[in-house]
Amino acid sequence: MRLIEAIRSALSAITANALRSLLTMLGIVIGVAAVIAMVAIGSGARNLVDQQIRSLGANLAIVTPGNVTQGGARLGAGQASTLTNEDAEAIRHEVDGVVAAAPFVQGYAHVVAGGSNWGTRIYGIDLDWFSAREWDVADGRTFDPEEIRRGDIVVILGQTVARNLFSEEDPIDQIVRVRNVPFRVIGVMAPKGQSAFGQDQDDVIFVPLDAGRRRVIGRNYAKDGSVGSVFVKFANEEDIEPGIESMTELLRQRHRIMGEEDDFSIRNLTEIANTASASANTLSMLLAAVAAVSLLVGGIGIMNIMLVSVTERTREIGLRLAVGARPRDILSQFLIEATTLSTIGGALGVGLGAGAAYLVAQLAGWPSLVSTNAIILAVGFSALVGIFFGFYPAQRAARLDPIEALRRE
């Protein structure tokens, strides 16, 4: 009951000087609002980065052509095709932990369907691509093994291409012309969204690897069986590092590289994703730490106003002590008053911060995510600020001599 009475007394003291209390809380309100808004924007950005990078697929490494030397001249990485279907097959069967090795070729093509046309990226792929990228077909079906083996002229459209070519019409079994080659549409991919580099991943079409090589992108892959790159998916993240070492040794053997520079390179996409996520998380925490400075400023304001309150209510404190109140009762009363003041400010700050985060998301198109943990942490921290900065004024009030206090005007 004493606690309830102390809280009631604190609320009465706060409302008795409403304007002063509101101005005192302003530092806490702004501090909590800044923390909530910054954490929300930082968390939204981190989630967006995670989604974009993870959209490539989990536990992925990518093998790309490296530097090639011809006639003493170094052509640079990726200037010549150094990878083949057989390399992908060897990786798939000889490297531990590999669940998919997806060779592919890529290029750009103009696609025509009826009176509509659209320029887009085209990928020649095999069946491992879908499991490596963790990407499903939403309508229709995927390629069957025989279509891949024969290099049939069938195509699967990305959502963006399907929408621009066929609008609301069903594209399945329709004919689209890719560089004047008639391809039959057998499926439409599920939406994938933007990549980490801001590229629309749904603006793409897929054809069987051999069809892409021979009929659409062949001039870039003159050597039989050549591919542009290979996506390698591992069962577990722990398999990636030893797997990359095994792949490096395997490809050096297959390419007969003896003491020379590798003609391929391997990148760990999961490591890149983790680094980007950690960077976004660090930025989020930095923003929150900067915003938290406002809470300290608000705490100093609370200490200041509580010291003023102790001075103004000296006779009241002396009277309470004279009629039997214990010093700890006075201490708890002023401490609860300071904590109530900061907690109310924290609650108002949460509302203001959530509104600010939403406004930023709407006006700037920047993602925001207000989490329950951030709200609890901000309000809890504001209460701790009240306790910390209110303790000295409360202790000063509790140590007043009742006789001296009653003598003061």
Explain how this protein is built.
- The protein has 409 residues and is of the alpha+beta class.
- It folds into 2 domains: 2-52 and 276-407, no CATH class; 67-262, no CATH class.
- It is built from 13 helices and 14 strands.
- It has helices spanning 2-16, 18-54, 85-94, 128-133, 145-150, 159-166, 209-216, 240-254, 269-312, 314-322, 327-364, 372-398, 402-407, and strands spanning 60-65, 69-70, 73-74, 83-84, 98-113, 116-125, 137-140, 154-157, 175-178, 181-189, 204-208, 226-227, 229-234, 264-268.
- The strands form 3 sheets. Strands 5-6-11-8-10-9 form a 6-stranded mixed beta barrel. A two-stranded antiparallel ribbon has the order 2-3. Strands 4-12 form a two-stranded antiparallel ribbon.
- Helix 2 (18-54) packs across helix 11 (327-364), helix 2 runs antiparallel to helix 12 and helix 3 crosses helix 8.
- The chain is elongated.
- Residues 69-78 have low confidence and may be disordered.
Summarize the structure.
The chain has 409 residues and is α+β, with helices and mostly antiparallel strands.
Which terms would index this structure?
409 residues, 14 strands, 13 helices, 2 domains, 6-stranded mixed β-barrel, alpha+beta, two-stranded antiparallel sheet, elongated, 19% strand
Measured distance between first and last alpha carbons: 32 Å
Helix content: 55-70%
Biggest beta sheet attributes: 6 strands, mixed, barrel
Radius of gyration: 33 Å
- Strand arrangement, largest sheet? 5-6-11-8-10-9
Query: What's the structural domain tally?
Result: 2
Overall geometry: elongated
Number of strands: 14
The unreliable regions are 69-78
Oligomer category: single chain
Average pLDDT for all residues: 80
Q: Compute the number of helices.
A: 13
Percent of residues in β-strands: 15-25%
